[in-house]
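URGENT: need a sanity check before tomorrow's submission.

F., can you look over the Aminopyrimidine aminohydrolase record below? I want to be sure the sequence and structure line up before it goes out.
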Amino acid sequence: MTFSTELRKEADSIYNAIFDHPFVRGLAKGDIPKGAVEHYVKADFEYLNAFMHMYGLAISKSSDRSDMDFYKQQIDFVLNSEIHPHNNLCQYIGINYDDLQSYPLPPSADHYIKHMKHYGHEGSLGEILAAILPCPWTYLEIGERLIEEIGHDEAHPFYEWIAFYAEEGIRETTDDIRKRLDDWAEGASQREKEAMKEAFIKSSQLEWGFWEMAYNEESWELVPRQAVTTYE
Ligand SMILES: Cc1ncc(CN)c(N)n1
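Structure tokens as predicted:
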């Protein structure tokens, strides 16, 4: 079994929790509270900026030009293509995409990007690959499942979003990052493999946390504690 297959198996319960998450189920049903969608787009715009920084950090740790070219192409993809699913969500809520940019990240999303950047600055290229892989992999699997569920129904309000992530290009990117991770793991020590596994599992969990953050419209505002029941 390849290292990435082993990691995916280990994270299976987290992936299943993502597929069952009410935001993801809402994408399938074509019905999500609009505030949650707005919250998602605001945070995801910033998340994808951080994700491009991760590719930049991967370039800084690469010595092979074809590797540098791969990460450069991924930046280009996020900049110029991954705006389409955001535009689909903006159409659904009737808000201009430009009005949802440059907002501070809510706590869970902030934690996710800082978790990735920790590996970006302190980790090896293998740890960077492990930390970024759940991003394309979870969305690919969501896309593939949802397109099966809704079929090629272009009238579905989230058809563009779903079709985008179910596309062959997303599988190619995921497989490419998996291959790079598997190659790296072959020469890695047990200790480094443990660090890669931790990076992957935590990123998978933080993917779930991102959906939860959006659905609950999580913010930094302090919520007063509920009155505590006292017993005599
Ligand atoms: C949080 C998150 N994770 C993954 C993806 C898919 N690139 C995304 N847009 N946002």
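My own read: The chain is about 75% helix and 0% strand. The mean pLDDT is 97. If you see anything odd, call me.
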